[in-house]
């Protein structure tokens, strides 16, 4: 069993998010404590890490990912830059990145055009980043309108345009978390996965998992056409998610033990 999980608002929470007093700091940026996990999440995560392979799957860059310390030791693998980069024992796997660049080459022209459009956009409030030559990122005033305008001008057959709050992204169609999971399952020759996330970036990932887990209301909010298991409303998603994953891991362990005993006999 592999758990592919988003990080922000799935496992960790910004200082702006009230997760109660029983919490621990997991990210410091420019001397400020900016991200936290609950004590329950910490305990669940520590136990789960002993049982299964956990692969953080994030749109964060390598630098942003490496700022996080969950206190449970380094994860053997991590997928960052929306799956475009694979880290193994903290080091990037060059062959993975080279394959990612090949997968998105048909989107290059649209990414270049998106960069030009955002460069001239007066609503942009942040520097323009072409992250690892994989996708475009910036921040804007009136981000929903910016996204709409970009969608009108770019070929949506090659790129997706999203916003997450004020953040605006132009991302190649083939650079998505679902495709990254498909590649990783082939890379590791594994067959069973649980996926977890909370945002539009995570839809393709949730669809790929044998079991997809999301916060309450996710299906309605994003109008998805496939089943996801939604956690209880009013509860902290990370706590409920990891507790559920522990339950699933026990079932999978039992199934595999049963298969092994039958084979042995």
Reconstruct the topology from this structure.
Elements: E1 2-5, E2 13-14, E3 23-29, E4 32-38, H1 39-51, E5 53-56, H2 62-66, E6 77-80, E7 85-88, E8 91-92, H3 94-103, H4 108-119, E9 129-131, E10 135-139, H5 143-153, E11 159-164, E12 167-172, H6 177-188, E13 193-196, H7 203-208, E14 211-214, H8 218-222, E15 229-230, H9 237-264
Parallel strand pairs: 1-5, 1-13, 13-14, 14-15
Antiparallel strand pairs: 2-4, 3-4, 6-7, 7-8, 9-10, 10-12, 11-12
Helix pairs in contact: 1-9
Please work out how many helical segments DSSP would assign. 9
Strand order of the largest sheet: 5-1-13-14-15
Shape: globular
What is the helix fraction of residues, given as a range? 25-40%
Q: Can you tell me about this structure?
A:
With 265 residues, this protein is of the alpha/beta class. The protein has helices spanning 39-51, 62-66, 94-103, 108-119, 143-153, 177-188, 203-208, 218-222, 237-264, and strands at residues 2-5, 13-14, 23-29, 32-38, 53-56, 77-80, 85-88, 91-92, 129-131, 135-139, 159-164, 167-172, 193-196, 211-214, 229-230. The strands form four sheets. A five-stranded parallel β-sheet has the order 5-1-13-14-15. It is globular, with a radius of gyration of 19 Å. The two termini are 24 Å apart.
Short description:
The chain is of the alpha/beta class and 265 residues long. The protein has helices spanning 39-51, 62-66, 94-103, 108-119, 143-153, 177-188, 203-208, 218-222, 237-264, and strands spanning 2-5, 13-14, 23-29, 32-38, 53-56, 77-80, 85-88, 91-92, 129-131, 135-139, 159-164, 167-172, 193-196, 211-214, 229-230. Strand 6 (77-80) and strand 7 form a beta hairpin.
